[in-house]
């Protein structure tokens, strides 16, 4: 299987075989004294624990029955993307997210793409993530996915592919920001010698995007971050982003709806809320409409939302567009709504709902990656070449029982990047999650969150499955000819 390494032109790595945009870093790394990287890693772990950068693993329980708190492993070696590659990727991301937002508006209004037969009608209207309550509801600026996390992989041919679209409550951006801060703290000399595009302004971009979506153009809108609470696996990120934006972090019990307006309880009385950046799934937002047992949302919230008196980001019902069974149709959405050819490729996908595809999947389970259409976090997935006979038999039975609940894709040879592991520096598989912000315009902080599969040979990068993260550098000009803007700003503080 063809392999692609981000830093080296060949594996095992050879001196002088570094890719052009990695040459300066490779020269620096070769001169790092033995033992210094391990000391820096230990320093990083101490700081991350002090700051409280953890996530909960629901499968692992502590004595109280709650999910155990862990650090997401942090790798010291950055993933570097040259400017020309990033510019092309950025164009593709803007194109893709624009088409997805057009699709979401369409399926909740005129349904042109369904009537044209481009996307099967039953696939959407019978989808568990389709919310009939949103039919005919006009959302601010016709934007449904204000914060999108698009997972991108690089295959052995060196080309980038979109692996999946995360449009509901994508997480991970706090680790992108904290990884950059950590790298600048540990290796300031690198930032003085590399022109690395900044990411520290992401919270400002996020706040600007949220304010763009204010109902009836309120000049000073009140924005809040709605969290399920401290036991959620991404609670650190909820609190972090609220603090960075300078807005209130609230739970459902802090909100009250009166006369179709949403208010926040404060020590000075009720204060109207205009925009809710929700980190709560649809089902838990309003017990009067969705799950009546939910204590995570506020009764009457959907009434206020449908009346146009509050904006919920991301919009209710966005999940229908990031369903894995809808993913294969995104290139056709780009053509249908924008009249353009997709810049970013999809991974070839077989759909269990199609009889011919199902037959192929069942005949090639040992070669394919099979995913539940509603699965997430690396769960509900079979990696055929690495699976046991028992796992393959289990998925065969599941596919035969509910074929529409699964898709399958070829096992891509994900690109590798040098990673600092117990035995030194070794290649490990990675992906990339850029974060796309859609308001009055589309904004993207350069790079994104690089996730790395720390287990040798593993293709699963999810933190819940033992994966870690890396800082992602987009070189503003390369070969690098000056300090990064973030480093310059730091020196002026």
How are the strands of the largest sheet arranged?
13-5-4-20-21
Largest sheet: 5 strands, mixed
Integer count of domains: 2
The overall average pLDDT, rounded, is 90
In terms of topology, how is this protein built?
Layout: H1 23-30, H2 36-51, E1 54-61, E2 67-71, E3 79-81, H3 83-107, H4 112-115, H5 121-125, E4 147-154, E5 160-166, H6 173-186, H7 188-193, H8 202-212, E6 223-226, H9 235-245, E7 248-250, E8 255-258, E9 261-266, E10 269-272, E11 275-278, H10 301-306, E12 311-313, H11 330-338, E13 345-346, E14 350-351, H12 355-363, E15 368-372, E16 381-383, H13 389-401, E17 406-410, E18 416-421, E19 424-433, E20 435-438, E21 442-444, E22 449-452, E23 468-470, E24 472-474, H14 485-492
Parallel strand pairs: 3-24, 5-13, 6-7, 6-11, 11-12
Antiparallel strand pairs: 1-2, 4-5, 4-20, 8-9, 9-10, 14-17, 15-16, 15-17, 18-19, 19-22, 20-21, 22-23
Helix pairs in contact: 3-11
What does this structure look like?
This protein has 493 residues and is of the alpha+beta class. The chain has two domains: 20-221 and 310-343 and 412-482, no CATH class; 348-410, Dna Ligase, domain 1 (2-Layer Sandwich), CATH 3.30.1490.270. It is 29% helix and 22% strand. It is built from 14 helices and 24 strands. The strands form seven sheets. Strands 13-5-4-20-21 form a five-stranded mixed β-sheet. The protein has a four-stranded parallel β-sheet with strand order 7-6-11-12, with helices on one face. A four-stranded antiparallel β-sheet has the order 14-17-15-16, covered by helices on one side. A hairpin with a 5-residue loop joins β1 and β2 (67-71). It starts with 22 loop residues before the first helix and ends with a helix. Residues 463-493 are annotated as: Disordered. Residues 78-453 form the Circularly permuted ATP-grasp type domain. This is Circularly permuted ATP-grasp type 2 domain-containing protein. It comes from Lampropedia cohaerens.
């Amino acid at each position: 299987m063809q392999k692609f390494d981000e830093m080296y032109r060949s594996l095992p790595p050879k001196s002088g075989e570094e890719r052009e945009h990695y040459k300066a870093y490779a020269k620096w790394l070769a001169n790092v004294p033995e033992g210094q990287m391990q000391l820096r890693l230990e320093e990083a772990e101490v700081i991350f624990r002090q700051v409280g950068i953890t996530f909960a693993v629901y499968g692992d329980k502590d004595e109280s029955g709650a999910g155990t708190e862990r650090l997401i492993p942090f790798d010291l070696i950055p993933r570097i993307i040259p400017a020309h590659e990033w510019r092309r990727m950025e164009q593709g991301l803007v194109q893709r997210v624009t088409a997805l937002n057009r699709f979401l508006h369409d399926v909740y209004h005129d349904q042109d793409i369904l009537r044209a037969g481009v996307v099967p009608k039953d696939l959407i209207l019978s989808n568990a993530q389709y919310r009939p309550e949103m039919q005919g509801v006009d959302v601010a600026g016709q934007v449904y996915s204000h914060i999108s996390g698009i997972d991108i992989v690089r295959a052995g041919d060196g080309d980038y592919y979109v692996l999946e679209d995360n449009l509901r409550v994508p997480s991970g951006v706090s680790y992108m920001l904290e990884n950059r801060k950590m790298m600048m703290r540990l290796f300031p000399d690198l930032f003085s010698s590399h022109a690395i595009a900044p990411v520290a302004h992401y919270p400002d971009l996020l706040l600007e995007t949220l304010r763009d979506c204010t109902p009836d153009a309120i000049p000073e809108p009140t924005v809040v971050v709605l969290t399920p609470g401290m036991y959620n696996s991404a609670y650190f990120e909820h609190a972090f982003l609220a603090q960075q934006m300078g807005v209130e972090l609230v739970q459902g019990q802090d909100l009250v709806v009166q006369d179709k307006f949403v208010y926040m309880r404060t020590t000075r009385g009720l204060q109207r809320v205009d925009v809710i950046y929700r980190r709560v799934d649809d089902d838990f937002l309003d017990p009067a409409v969705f799950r009546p047992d939910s204590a995570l949302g506020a009764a009457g919230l959907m009434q206020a939302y449908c009346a146009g008196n509050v904006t919920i980001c991301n919009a209710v019902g966005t999940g229908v567009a990031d369903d894995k069974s809808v993913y294969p149709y995104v290139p056709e959405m780009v053509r249908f709504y924008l009249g353009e050819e997709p810049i970013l490729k999809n991974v070839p996908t077989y759909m269990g709902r199609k009889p011919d595809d199902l037959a192929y999947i069942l005949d090639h389970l040992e070669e394919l990656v099979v995913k539940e259409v509603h699965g997430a976090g690396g769960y509900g997935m079979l990696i055929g070449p690495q699976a046991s006979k028992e796992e393959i038999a289990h998925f065969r039975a599941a596919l035969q029982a509910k074929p529409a609940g699964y898709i399958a894709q070829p096992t891509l040879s994900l690109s590798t990047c040098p990673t600092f592991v117990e035995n030194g520096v070794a290649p490990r598989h990675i992906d990339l999650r850029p974060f796309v912000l859609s308001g009055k315009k589309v904004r993207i902080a350069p790079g994104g969150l690089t996730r790395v599969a720390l287990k040798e040979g593993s293709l699963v990068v999810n933190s819940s499955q033992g994966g870690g993260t890396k800082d992602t550098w987009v070189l503003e000009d390369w070969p690098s000819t000056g300090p990064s803007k973030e480093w310059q700003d730091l020196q002026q503080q």
